[in-house]
Amino acid sequence: MKYLTLSIYLLAFVSNLQVFGQEQPNVLIFITDDQHRLEYNFLEEGRNEDGTHKNLQPTLDKLVNEGIVFEQQHVVAGICTPSRYALLTGQVPSRAITKGFLAEEKRCSQKNPHFNVGITSKNYTIANMFKDAGYFTGGVGKNHVIDGDGKMSHRIKKNATQEETEKRLKHIQADNIAAYKACGFDFAKNIYPGNLPGFLPKNLEFHNTDWIIDGALEFLDVASKKENPFFLYCATTVSHGPAKLGTKYKGNRKATACGFLDEAVDVMPSQESIEKRIAEAKLGDTAKDALWLDDAMTALMEKLEAIGELDNTIIFFITDNAVEHGKFTCYEGGTNTPSVVWAPKLIQKGKRTAALASSVDIVPTMAEMCNITLPKKVKFDGISQLAVLKGEKESVRDNIYLEVGATRAIVKDGWKYLAFRVPEERSTWSYEKRKKLAVNGNPDDPFTHICDRPAGRGGESPALAYYPNYYDADQLYNLEEDPHEQNNLAKNPQYALKLEELKNVLIQELKDKPGTFGELKPKN
User: CB under 8 Å to 439, separation ≥6 — which residues?
Assistant: First the structure.
């Protein structure tokens, strides 16, 4: 009996080695910020009329040629913060539990997710999932959603001295690292709190992808010395503002979210190298930032190969939201964000799929790919896409649900229904409050899709100018014939049945979501 018991323990030990050791795949999520479609060779917008590429991106080309492209990948919300919330939690952003978001709901029963959502230590994140499964977890780069205890402040006094500013920046960096660690990350370094404008002093508003990648490489060095598999969340600040597209790579590489470095990090090709290679390839200036991002992925993949983990690593590439006119909305120009999955040991190679996929699917997909059981006590809104990745099914989703601000939408069978419902509470705002919050100081300006102030925010202006039916309460689009959503068919009697069909799909989806939404989900 003694030997039998010992044998059982040995079998359990070997089994744990397979679950918690290197037999399990590593995972790298590489998420860019506001990347334009013309910066992807694998999309039509990234090719010239003769089919030649507009970009020099050999590493992304490799991932595409050897992986799977989800052509109909959508982020839940076409704006940075709620989009990252969905990716990192597997939940729609209206499930957020940050104090500011819940406080707004008390004043207005309809949930209004935008910049007000955040991830606290009470959330269950993808980092928690991997950490609980024995992974070594790390995060670097842009944050803009992880808040830890929900009390983090990024304010810097306008008249602060340089010494006071640098001290404050280091304090903010420490707060961000602590927030990451409170939310499941073992390792966090070189964090940008949010967008460069508004979160950093003017003299530090330079993109520094090299600094982000330096932190990622340090994580991989540490991970290589451990027996555990690892998970790395690497978030860039490019291609978001400031600076025009194609010029972001020119920033001061000594400038960081912690202040100025004594010496720039030297982990990626120089600015001069970027310019030289683009000139040799006879490409336009807009290709320069895309090459900088590709250099970042190259550095990571070369490090993975150097530590012997490249073939055992799943790489997921995505951007946080689209920027073709539709940012801050549920339009395709804000939410349609094609993604790439590369996992040579686990999935089909060189495939493009039109299967519907949502950013909330990433958590359950990665869980199944890594043989991790998700906790039943947590409500997840995603569906695993592994069957699509392995070629076992053409699709696993019937529709995609989208939400941001005062809009909700459904994508199904090549159609979209979008509902815009300004909550009743907004009509009770005083004249003084509306005037104070209005962008142009006009209290009579209408609320926009974000719906947090009259006339909306500056970033909403491209969508306001581009979509002729922006303020319509009900919007119906045939995406195959009208991919840019210019012709609202909701008022056309010919499409009444299609409108009713998709409206009912949205109603069914809302039953499972928190909060109210006009007459489509009234108060109980």
Answer: 445, 453, 454, 455, 456, 457, 458
